[in-house]
Amino acid sequence: MVAKDIKNVTIVNPSCKYSCNHCGYPSYSKVNSENIKNFIKILQDSGKTVKLYDMDITTDSLDLFQLTGQYDNPKGFGWMNVTESFNPTDEQLSQLEKMTVGFCLSLHGSTPEINSILTGSTKRHEQILKKYNQLRNLLPDKPIGLAMVIHSENIHNIQDMAQIGKDMNVSFLEFINILYAGSAPHKLGKEHFLSKNDLKNALMEIKKASEYSFFEILLDSTWGPTDHILAPPTIIPEANYRNCSMFAPALQDKFCNAGYNHVVIRADNLSIFPCPGMSFYEELKIGELIENKIKIDNEWHKQVISSEPCNPCEDYENCKGGCRISAITEGIRKFGQIKKDIGQYNCAKYVTRK
């Protein structure tokens, strides 16, 4: 079946060599940027809106962003997730100044030791802080912030991270809950993953930090609906705590829009998935790019999401089941295998209800 109704396509480029312990995206796989450029043009010619999702932004990535135009208006991802290796040319800095874009660097703790639990290296803490300061100087008018992935060993560090945010004059601080996904189950012990009580404690600590911070605190969409915890952000206008809008416009009747108004193509093998977070798992594949056309042959996502297993939870009408990759990978954690129809154990509305 050719997917004519899919208007938004994200190309996932598995470009990152850092191999962080918690990464839920495909392992490093080198892809020629000219090939990605061809995919972008082909998809655009067929009427698709195309975005590039890169795990480690390079000068080639920036050239491809010019082609996608995803940062020409506020309807892109909102910011670029960059690493300490981000090193744009003078010409690219001039281009970045014209784009509606911010920058986000991952820092998973206030000390090198805490940060290294996920990054695997104590050296990266200083390197990230140095890169943050460099970007602040090079692009002073752009929003620049930090992202922290929360696990059981750094919940106590949330307030210290908020202090770092204040000291460094960040534009925003985003908190992401660790998922039992990708390389994390193989590189981290089970004790690092969040229990229901951990999730609740983390969310309450984040809410507490937001009450005195002079910058915006954000929650990643993997928490599910969180508008009862934090007010919608203004620094990234398209962010939406009601329903997920990270990769395509939010749908009113579903929190997760994966596979409905957007799909993902892995640049290295042309496999198609409902969402970038699912692209690590061959079992979650729904099709392929064949002869330059999107062909879907397994719509498992529509059966699962349309008959949401959380129903009839009392919060279901407000939640609509939360993030699917968050739910599906909990199946691995609890049952040792991918369960596409598993309920949402990580739902912020569920864990914080009285």
Summarize the structure.
With about 350 residues, the chain is α/β, with parallel strands linked by helices. Helix content is about 30%, strand content about 15%.
Topology of this structure?
Layout: E1 8-13, H1 33-45, E2 49-54, H2 59-68, E3 79-82, H3 90-98, E4 102-106, H4 112-119, H5 123-138, E5 144-150, H6 158-167, E6 172-177, H7 184-187, H8 196-210, E7 216-219, E8 262-266, E9 271-273, E10 287-290, E11 293-296, H9 300-306, H10 316-319, H11 324-335, H12 348-352
Parallel strand pairs: 1-2, 1-8, 3-4, 4-5, 5-6, 6-7
Antiparallel strand pairs: 8-9, 9-10, 10-11
Instruction: Specify the overall morphology.
Output: globular
Helix amount, in percent?
A: 25-40%
Sheet with most strands:
6 strands, mixed
Structural class: alpha/beta
| Share in β-strands | 15-25%
Distance between the termini: 46 Å
Walk me through this protein's architecture.
The chain is α/β, with parallel strands linked by helices. The chain is built from 12 helices and 11 strands. A 6-stranded mixed beta sheet has the order 2-1-8-9-10-11. β5, α6 and β6 form a beta-alpha-beta unit. α4 crosses α5. The longest helix is centred in the middle third of the chain and has 16 residues.
